[in-house]
């Protein structure tokens, strides 16, 4: 029976079109994609030995052979730090100079590796780089919002094979974030509790959408997930901003993320995916009403005219089924 | 210089990444897609002679050889009218039975034709079918919102070659529509004018983003367009709902839409695209603060992790350049 579900945190309705549902296995691409098998590429700006092809590094985390993770400026930045943060207004036309930061996190020395197949310690370094750079960029008072994200594969908007993530700092707070904060504030005023804490508690009680859980994190397919295998990784401790992640929590997040990506890689045949960390704007760091989380969206279906016309999503897989499928997939066996 | 622009009607900031900008010609796919060249397909449920492969028609518009346009139920409906509109609530989990309508508008008898290449009279019939069915569905008091849309090509989510559009009636009002209505109401209270009328007037004064204009409609690339060649077709007369389109305006909308699609087809080598009509929820039909429009989004770039993490878009083409490019493309010469 088709049904609609409301996500209390985003106030978005999602349509579950079960008449069109496929079995989880049917979302696997027919053939494994031709990812690079080269350990190293002579022309790749992110490979060791080619460091002079990028500008100076913002961050180098050391490893046995030199650097392990490197953060460099994006060669084609969407926003640039040499710009002013000036505003213009002519009638209805409001512009803001493109001030901001756009950095690339080179996740590993190896050209052919993917985050799903790295060791726990290696994923640890990637998350540490995220935290260090996000904290640094948020400290600039001209920054409105910091987005940490990853595009894996061409359908997810990735044009560079070498494993990497991106960090963009914008001079404004996006309207969607403003709306989510307002929704969270209203829920907090009504209930005296963070809406994300509330959802997490009810998801843990229900259990059927949980993929895995440890001392600090829960990975689950939300009750009103956008798309098949759409996952939220939520800290159990109420924390509004990703930059509040402690040194003790970091390895637990690495373990959780790596296991989820490994299960997706194995169960869905290395699909393209996007990953994003949603945090509160820095101006509200430490607040009681918002909660950061990491979202993973395998790109197994496409956004079309219905989504364009309504902002609503049609999801062809029930979250309970997506979660069960991922629970059943093997996790990594090596540390 | 990179810049951000605010859309006053949606309150969304769009990043213009001019450092990454390509020339408009660079968005053309390398090779023309292999669209079907068959006039007729024996197995296509939308081809003449195969009418028994679909359920009864909701609407038939007559033509010289039988029907010209036909509206049928979607074989795999996202929402179904045999469902109740019941709601359930268990703690944080809110569900709504999947009541609604999901219809397919078969735009033409010919299997290989596309809306861009139809005659003005044929596009007229498609729009007439939209209006008749949307008005009918909106009259059901259990319907919250009606979305009219079209997916052209696989990258736009289209799985059926025969030219068709879709109409979905949902039992709820989507959150994005609620937010836009709230933004429009606030602007109306502040300024005593519809924000879309205001933007249209300023766009006409500025002129540089207008693609074409006639007595009743303006087609332009909005000051803060989401993506390259993203176009709004707006009625000049203040009307909140598409179903208020008059018989006199309908042929002018057909001419505008056909010309825009023809220019996109020729200038960008028949790209995949989505089309959607955004209207006020029926409960506010006739209101002073909202304005319907038709949006066309060629799928020449992809949505990635940044958009997922922030709800903001990065656009690699300035709207002025997209508009100039489309103005320079030839329009149809036949009526």
Descriptive terms for the model:
homodimer, 335 residues, alpha+beta, ten-stranded antiparallel β-sheet, three-stranded mixed β-sheet
CATH topology of chain A: HIT family, subunit A
pLDDT < 50 stretches of chain A:
none
| Gyration radius from CA atoms of chain A, angstroms | 20 Å
Give the largest interface.
A-B, 76 and 76 residues
CATH architecture group name of chain A? 2-Layer Sandwich
Question: Roughly what percent helix of chain A?
Answer: 10-25%
Oligomer: homodimer
> Average pLDDT of chain A, to the nearest integer?
91
What is the H-and-E element order of chain A? EEEEEEEHEEHHEEEHEEHEH
How many domains make up the 3D coordinates of chain A? 1
How would a textbook summarize the main sheet of chain A?
10 strands, antiparallel
What's the CATH class label of chain A? Alpha Beta
- The helix-and-strand class of chain A reads alpha+beta
């Amino acid at each position: 029976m088709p049904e609609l579900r409301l996500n209390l945190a985003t106030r978005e309705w999602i349509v579950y079109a079960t008449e069109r549902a496929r079995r989880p296995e049917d979302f696997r691409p027919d053939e494994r994609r031709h990812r690079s098998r080269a350990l190293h590429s002579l022309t790749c700006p992110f490979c060791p030995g080619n460091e002079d092809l990028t500008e100076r590094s913002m961050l180098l985390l050391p490893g046995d052979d030199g650097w392990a993770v490197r953060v460099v400026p994006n060669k084609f930045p969407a926003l640039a730090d040499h710009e002013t943060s000036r505003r213009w207004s002519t009638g209805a036309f409001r512009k803001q100079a493109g001030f901001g930061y756009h950095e690339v996190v080179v996740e590993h020395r190896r050209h052919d590796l993917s985050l799903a197949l790295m060791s726990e310690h290696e994923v640890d370094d990637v998350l540490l780089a995220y935290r260090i750079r996000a904290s640094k960029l948020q400290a600039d008072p001209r920054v409105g919002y910091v987005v940490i994200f990853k595009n894996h594969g061409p359908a997810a908007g990735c044009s560079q094979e070498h494993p990497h993530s991106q960090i963009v700092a914008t001079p404004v707070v996006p309207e969607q974030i403003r709306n989510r904060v307002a929704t969270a504030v209203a829920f907090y005023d009504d209930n005296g509790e963070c809406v994300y804490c509330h959802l997490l508690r009810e998801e843990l009680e229900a259990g059927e959408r949980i993929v895995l859980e440890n001392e600090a994190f829960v990975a689950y397919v939300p009750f009103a997930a956008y798309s098949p295998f759409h996952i939220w990784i939520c800290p159990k401790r109420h924390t509004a901003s990703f930059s509040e992640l402690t040194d003790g929590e970091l390895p637990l997040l690495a373990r959780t993320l790596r296991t989820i990506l490994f299960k997706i890689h194995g169960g869905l045949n290395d699909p393209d995916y996007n990953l994003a960390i949603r945090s509160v704007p820095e101006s509200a760091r430490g607040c009681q009403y918002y909660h950061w989380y990491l979202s993973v969206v395998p790109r197994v279906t496409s956004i079309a005219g219905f989504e364009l016309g309504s902002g609503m999503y049609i999801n062809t897989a029930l979250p309970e089924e997506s979660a069960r499928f991922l629970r059943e997939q093997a996790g990594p066996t090596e540390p």
